[in-house]
Design a protein that fits this description.
Elements lengths: L7 H26 L3 H20 L4 H22 L4 H22 L7 H6 L7 H20 L1 H9 L1 H6 L4 H39 L6 H26 L3 H31 L1
Helix pairs in contact: 1-6, 1-9, 1-10, 2-3, 2-4, 2-9, 3-4, 3-9, 6-9, 9-10, 9-11, 10-11
Length: 275
């Protein structure tokens, strides 16, 4: 892996992967503790509509896709907050329509044959330096916002009623969280694909949740674990000439399965000791 770093594209891929892991570790922690994993998947897939619009109307990729994703995310947030018993169905509809809308617009874009697989699994090895600058600035802003509102987010995540009693604007904060999630998804999907976005958002927080004592610890541990998955996946993809995004996902999935196995062994051991 060290010799690979002589290539600029590999250095960019490494930095992009680490930035994505840190951002997803922080936002993914809030996604897991607030139980909005399905909603994050919906936003990731609906973002295809923004990708299609950006290419069809020749808009800059990032503003166009973020704008569309924010609209879709706010619709999903409104549904999940007010019509909870039908939220999964309506989010599923927005998810499917947004994705289909984007694919059709890409089909209709004159003279442009887009490789849809690059948006599913990303093209982390082709990330230019300009994208790294955008990721750093926007990612840094997201992290600052999360830590500025950390106390309120903590209260909302674990006890919504207590948060309201304390005067926390829960509804506004919830919509703000969904907005940050939408920006994160678009920011990361550009380089690692929507499937890896979902993996990095959910797998590291799920694994570390039972081993930490605070939300802040969970964010830090999730970011570190995401970086480990990314570095391992990049190394394996380089060594065996595999697709980088898919390899990172498989490493993350393997970590998830090992975590479940260890938990099961521990539970059996505890049961035997109690008997």
């Amino acid at each position: 892996m060290i010799e690979a770093l002589q290539f600029d594209f590999m250095k960019n891929a490494l930095v992009a992967g680490l930035l994505a892991s840190i951002i997803c570790g922080i936002i993914g922690t809030l996604v897991v503790v607030n139980r909005i994993v399905f909603l994050s998947g919906g936003i990731a897939h609906a973002a295809y509509g923004g990708i299609g619009m950006a290419f069809y109307f020749k808009w800059p990729y990032l503003p166009g896709t973020i704008g569309f994703s924010l609209v879709a995310a706010m619709l999903m947030a409104a549904v999940s907050h007010s019509v909870k018993h039908r939220a999964d169905t309506i989010i599923g509809v927005i998810w499917a329509v947004g994705m289909a809308f984007g694919i059709i617009l890409l089909d209709l874009t004159p003279g442009y044959n887009v490789d849809l697989m690059s948006y599913l699994f990303g093209s982390i090895l082709t990330v230019p330096g300009s994208d790294l600058v955008v990721m750093s600035v926007v990612g840094g802003s997201i992290i600052l916002l999360v830590f500025y509102f950390y106390t309120d987010l903590l209260a909302m995540s674990y006890d919504e009623e207590f948060a309201r009693i304390r005067g926390v604007p829960v509804k506004t904060l919830y919509f703000g969280l969904i907005g940050l999630l939408a920006v994160t998804v678009v920011l990361v999907i550009q380089v690692v694909g929507l499937i890896l976005v979902i993996a990095l958002l959910t797998i590291p927080p799920f694994i570390v949740e039972k081993h930490v004592k605070s939300l802040a610890q969970m964010m830090v541990a999730s970011s570190i674990l995401g970086c480990v998955f990314t570095l391992t996946g990049l190394w394996l993809s380089y060594q065996y000439n595999l697709t980088s995004g898919a390899t990172i996902i498989m490493v993350s999935g393997s970590g998830f399965m090992i975590s479940l196995l260890i938990d099961r062994i521990r539970l059996k051991g505890k049961t035997l000791r109690n008997n």
